[in-house]
Design goal:
The structure is a single chain. The protein is α+β, with helices and mostly antiparallel strands. The protein folds into two domains: 10-167, NADH Oxidase; 261-342, no CATH class. Helix content is 34%, strand content 10%. It contains 14 helices and eight strands. The strands form three sheets. Strands 1-2-6-3 form a four-stranded antiparallel sheet, sandwiched between helices. It has a two-stranded antiparallel ribbon with strand order 4-5. It starts with 9 loop residues before the first helix and ends with a helix. The structure holds cobalamin and iron/sulfur cluster (SF4) (2 copies). Cobalamin binds at residues 33-34, 37-38, 41, 50, 53, 90, 92, 126-127, 131-135, 138-139, 145, 148-151, 158, 160-162, 181, 204-206, 208, 211, 213-214, 218, 237-239, 241.
Length: 342
């Protein structure tokens, strides 16, 4: 029997996604997400001051609000794992900003889809758009969400970043997510116990206020004092709940595009000591730019204090008189830690 008119081949669509550089692709029906998944999280204040998470809730819960007549969500993932070298920077942030990489690939994919099926309208999302990317990736059969709230794939573990393409056409085959959501963890709860700040407040639920990822990337104000001591080896983003996960023990090397850049090899001391000129050499095009020069140096000063790094004392003394109030305050806190009797 021929394909119904307007219905497109999922195999061909996923083939185009692979050719555009995505490691994983899968199709889910464009169905609404139960409102409680997002609304309960927001109502509990788990989004901290990420006010943009409160915006466009209708779109987040239903992609047809983004693309009228949406029928299909193509979930896309790229593996980014490159190295096991210890670093105070989260793995996803050690290379070129992944947003740029995924946007380039998504732009190419959308162009080829339009060339192949000119009648199809689409909407593309990488991270910042009002799309709940993990939920669609689960529905599209790419993997499942672990108790650490990260999206975990059978092939790459959770070392993937996500993108989404919504189409107003049906495909001829949709994924049937095989693993029931949550089954992947079984009785394991290593990540919940390993999180140094108790940010995993329930299975799959992160309270951003306590999460060091939020604190080091998004929070422009001072990091709350009780959290700072947990920042040993954490200066930008946090991978602890992924590093401890047994499903991540055999990482697969990602494409060259995710290679570590010079900023990704800097120690906390080197990050704290960056001059403006050095910052302008390493930061552009890297994820660090989001936190800014002072944000990264503030975080690094906290990390040096958390680690009670005695060799960093002269540097911290210099930073305690820094023109940036938040850097100076963080350095003074770190010096107090060095002076305190343990
Ligand atoms: C806000 C946000 C954050 C916040 C809040 C974290 C959070 N869990 O929401 C902060 C700043 C803390 C953060 C941190 C990180 N983030 Co973030 N973040 C986002 C963002 C922009 C929105 C997520 C969201 O909607 N949260 C709201 C809550 C309610 O939803 P949720 O987390 O999806 O969790 C619920 C649902 O998943 C639901 N659920 C689970 N399974 C299923 C299945 C079905 C069928 C249904 C209906 C529901 C459901 O249960 C959960 C609890 O309510 C997404 C990008 C995007 N547009 O989706 C990236 C994103 C989730 N982040 C990402 C990354 C890489 C990270 C970090 C690993 C970065 C780092 N190394 O520091 C950490 C991980 C922290 C953690 N343990 O989760 C990746 C995820 C990669 C992955 N493999 O999981 C994303 C997808 C960005 C991207 N485009 O790649 N992040
Ligand atoms: S990213 Fe770090 S702070 Fe956030 S939940 Fe995971 S282990 Fe906890
Ligand atoms: S550490 Fe254990 S509980 Fe946490 S996500 Fe991995 S398998 Fe699941």
């Amino acid at each position: 029997m021929g394909r119904a008119e307007g219905v497109i081949s999922s195999a061909e669509l996923m083939g185009l996604a692979t050719r555009a550089g995505f490691d994983l692709a899968g199709c889910a029906r464009a169905e609404p997400i139960p409102p409680s998944v997002l609304q309960d999280w927001l109502a509990a204040g788990h989004h901290a001051d990420l006010d943009w998470m409160e915006g466009r809730v209708a779109e987040r819960l239903d992609v047809t609000a983004l693309l009228p007549g949406a029928k299909t969500v193509l979930a896309l993932a790229c593996n980014y794992w490159r190295t096991d070298e210890p670093s105070p920077i989260a793995r996803y942030a050690r290379g070129r900003d992944y947003h740029a990489t995924l946007r380039d690939r998504l732009r190419n994919l959308r162009r080829t889809v339009r060339e192949r099926w000119p009648h199809v309208k689409d909407y593309g999302s990488v991270d910042a758009n009002p799309v709940m990317e993990k939920v669609h990736a689960v529905r599209a059969g790419l993997g499942t969400v672990g108790k650490n709230a990260c999206f975990i794939t059978p092939r790459f573990g959770s070392w993937v970043v996500l993108a989404t393409m919504v189409l107003d056409a049906e495909v001829d085959a949709y994924a049937h997510p095989s693993a029931a959501d949550g089954e992947v963890c079984g009785r394991c709860r290593i990540c919940l116990d390993a999180c140094p700040t108790g940010a995993l407040v329930a299975d799959k639920v992160v309270d951003a206020r306590a999460c060091l990822s939020y604190q080091t990337i998004e929070n422009e104000a001072a990091v709350p004092e009780p959290l700072r001591a947990a920042m040993t080896q954490i200066t930008f983003g946090c991978d602890i709940c992924q590093d401890v996960c047994p499903l991540n023990v055999t990482p697969v090397l990602a494409q060259e595009r995710f290679a570590v850049r010079p900023h990704g090899s800097l120690t906390a001391r080197a990050l704290a000591a960056l001059s403006q000129a050095e910052w302008h050499q390493v930061a552009p095009g890297s994820p660090l730019a989001r936190a800014g020069y002072d944000g990264v140096r503030r975080n690094a000063a906290y990390a040096l204090g958390a680690a009670r790094d005695a060799l960093a004392r002269p540097l911290l003394e210099r930073l305690s008189a820094d023109a940036s109030q938040k850097v100076a305050e963080a350095a003074r806190w770190a010096l107090d830690r060095l002076d305190a009797k343990v």
